[in-house]
Design a protein that fits this description.
The chain is an alpha/beta fold and 441 residues long. The protein has two domains: 113 residues, Urease, subunit C, domain 1 (Roll), CATH 2.30.40; 299 residues, TIM Barrel (Alpha-Beta Barrel), CATH 3.20.20. The protein has 15 helices and 16 strands. Keywords: Signal.
Length: 441
């Protein structure tokens, strides 16, 4: 647990602050203006009924407001992770996905709740979950999180990934073949592709995710076109798992809204994405986390260093080229790994650090995880910003995010979700103790 000063302990344990209608007057050292990609100093925020009522300099404190003095902190909008898999916990083995998919549904939901809590304690107040969650287990978890707003982020879901035959499995033993239909919605032909979207719509998903390519299979251009047309007609956006240039280009030409991963993208595809307004979700890793992941697959010494350097160089080059071409970047972690030493929330926030390590300024990489992500969700007027009328999802980082990015990003002091203090959270009837926190897909 992070160390917390006595003042903060008293605030968090106060029964008054647990009430959503409490008015808060918050003083901060720095405020990140996501819409304009800038940092403002000596700001105040008034929160009432879960909404930001006012923000600015020299605001008069309302007579009935509770004061939070967080002048040593930088406040940002609640972070948004646009590529999660809360229902998947996968070991770094060749059969990791198969094994993780066989976990009973009840256990996956239980673990998902723990992962959700870890995300919000890391400052992530909204997630978009993109499949590998059985048949609509994500919808069940979404409902649970919505009914109890204090246990995790707001969740948007895709349902089963729409894929070509075989899902994302390269090869399965016959006895394991049931996992394909458990984890994916396999389509064959244009009419089946349309039907898959309508099935998802009926189940109340928020976004359609397609798998454009696996190691040896792709969705046909006419299938992805049918998926996009049907989804857009029914008010759903489409994002595409596409790791290679050809499949990404096919998806962009078909009109998808976003590309997930895009590890290998040509300048011409990036230019096409910028022209068509297709965003990119680079699911990259920092050097520190990369070292743990590489060690997890058994690489050591020079082999490990060379492998990691090649991967990071590729990530950074692709990201910088995308930015230079004018592609909208949206933050997404794709962190679902069972790796000793990396907690889910920490692993999710790491993707923002990876963008910073590519040489991009703090003011830009934070925008990817706030305003840009909210824009991709179609919610940028009320989410991903600190402005009057916006949802009061706020994260307070100890220190100066502008000038001490890496250290501050890992040091969350407080999280507000819809105006409630969600982290740190006191144990019931306790004034001194706090509750302990609990590959590409």
């Amino acid at each position: 647990m992070r160390l917390l000063i006595p003042f903060l302990l008293l605030l968090v344990s106060s029964p008054v602050l647990a009430q959503p209608k409490t008015k808060l007057f918050i003083r901060v050292g720095k405020l990140y203006d996501a819409k304009n990609s800038s940092f403002l100093t000596n700001q105040q925020i008034i929160v009432a009924d879960g909404v930001i009522e006012a923000v600015g300099h020299n605001i008069v404190k309302p007579a009935n407001a509770t004061v939070l003095n967080l002048t040593t902190c930088t406040v940002t909008p609640g972070l948004i992770d646009m590529h999660t898999h809360l229902l998947l916990h996968q070991k770094q083995t060749k059969d990791g996905l198969e094994v993780a998919s066989k976990v009973p549904a009840s256990e996956r939901i239980k673990s998902g709740l723990v992962f959700a809590r870890q995300h919000i304690e890391a400052g992530i107040t909204t997630v978009r979950d993109l499949g590998n969650s059985g048949q609509y287990l994500d919808s069940q978890l979404q409902k649970t999180l919505a009914e109890s707003k204090e246990i995790g982020p707001t969740m948007y879901v895709s349902g089963p990934i729409i894929s070509p035959p075989g899902g994302q499995f390269s090869k399965l033993f016959p006895a394991d073949s049931f996992v394909i239909n458990q984890e994916y919605r396999v389509v064959s032909g244009v009419e089946d592709a349309r039907a898959a979207v309508l099935e998802h719509k009926k189940r109340g998903v928020n976004v359609i995710k397609v798998c454009m390519n696996t190691e040896n299979r792709v969705l046909a251009p006419e299938e992805i076109a049918a998926i996009v047309q049907t989804a857009h007609k029914n008010g759903l956006s489409v994002t595409a798992h596409a790791t290679y240039d050809d499949s990404a280009k096919d998806a962009v030409l078909a009109g998808v809204d976003g590309i997930e991963h895009g590890y290998i993208l040509s300048d011409s595809t990036l230019a096409l994405m910028a022209q068509r307004g297709t965003y990119l979700v680079p699911t990259d890793v920092s050097r520190e986390k990369g070292e743990l992941l590489v060690a997890g697959i058994g690489m050591v010494g020079k082999e490990a260093e060379d492998y990691l350097k090649s991967a990071l160089d590729g990530f950074h080059d692709r990201l910088r080229r995308a930015v230079n071409k004018g592609v909208m970047i949206v933050s997404g972690s794709d962190f679902y790994n069972d790796v000793k030493g990396i907690e889910r929330g920490e692993g999710a926030v790491d993707v923002i650090q990876s963008y910073y390590e590519a040489g991009l300024p703090a003011k830009d990489v934070l925008r990817y995880a706030t305003y840009n992500a909210a824009k991709a969700l179609g919610l940028s007027e009320r989410l991903g910003v600190i402005s009057k009328g916006a949802k009061a999802d706020l994260v307070f980082f100890n220190g100066d995010l502008e000038n001490d990015f890496a250290q501050s990003l890992a040091n969350v002091k407080m999280v507000l979700k819809e105006g409630r203090i969600i982290y740190p959270k006191a144990k019931p009837q306790s004034k001194t103790k706090l509750k302990n926190p609990q590959g590409s897909k």
